[in-house]
Amino acid sequence: MTQDTQKIALVTGSSRGLGKNTALTLAQKGVDVIVTYHSSEAEANKVVSEITAMGRKAGALQLDSSDTQTFDGFVVQVNQVLQDIWQTEQFNFLINNAGIGINKPFSETTEEDFDLLMNIQLKGVFFLTQKLLPVIKDGGRIVNISTGLARFALPGFSAYGAMKGGIEVLTRYLAKELGERQIAVNTIAPGAIETDFGGGAVRDNKNMNDFIASQTALGRVGVPDDIGGAIAALLSEDNRWINGQRIEVSGGMFL
């Protein structure tokens, strides 16, 4: 495969959790990956090592998704790593995955909580994608990660769910406006997944885990492989005609 045809993905928040699984799954499918991390460079480098062990190319970059003032510098670094590793100027796939979870009742959610979620989950995605547009190839793809909590309501996630609802609307607008460049934009909305996200509550709290499993048609809580595989499948050439859609990957929660 030549440098012109080799697919490259940039996965934000890919040093752990769903982002890590997505990066590794894409590598298994033959896609090279730019990994980003917020604070754990060592974990990101481990992901890079796992990808290169598969015979694929990868690089890691630090990204603070909450600070739009750093995005210009991040794009410069993306350009540099594309030149250094791939001798190219653009990548194919952007997966906006980086995020945090805050579980607080509506009455106790502070403005600081709200702003932090807004900056990472919505404002950060909006402006990072905007800054990266010149570096995404025509005919590329963007996948924004949402949540089942934008469809159904569970107490404690009003701010988080609201931000992800905004992401789903943004996805449709991006699909419309980037159509002239043949860039397809979709949303993957995971259900509850056993990771360390939000302090690992879904994974570690047996009562919560059992409740979610009881409300899921397939009878269990999701695992990272369920999501990484779905994202990789959406980015395959077979699914090139899917655009502007929200795809929930939850095993059938709260049907």
General description of the model:
The protein is α/β, with parallel strands linked by helices and 255 residues long. It has one domain: NAD(P)-binding Rossmann-like Domain (Rossmann fold, 3-Layer(aba) Sandwich), CATH 3.40.50. It is 42% helix and 16% strand. It contains eight helices and seven strands, in the order βαβαβαβαβαβαααβ. It has helices at 17-28, 41-53, 71-86, 111-132, 158-177, 201-204, 206-214, 224-234; strands spanning 8-11, 32-37, 58-62, 91-96, 136-145, 184-190, 246-249. Strands 3-2-1-4-5-6-7 form a seven-stranded parallel beta sheet, sandwiched between helices. Strand 2 (32-37), helix 2 and strand 3 form a beta-alpha-beta unit. Helix 4 packs parallel to helix 5. 41% of the residues are buried.
Features:
seven-stranded parallel sheet, globular, Rossmann fold, alpha/beta
Topology:
Layout: E1 8-11, H1 17-28, E2 32-37, H2 41-53, E3 58-62, H3 71-86, E4 91-96, H4 111-132, E5 136-145, H5 158-177, E6 184-190, H6 201-204, H7 206-214, H8 224-234, E7 246-249
Parallel strand pairs: 1-2, 1-4, 2-3, 4-5, 5-6, 6-7
Helix pairs in contact: 1-2, 1-8, 4-5
The stretches of 5 or more residues where confidence is low (pLDDT under 50) are none
- Relevant CATH superfamily: NAD(P)-binding Rossmann-like Domain
- Estimate nothing, just give the exact number of structural domains: 1
> Can you tell me the CATH class?
Alpha Beta
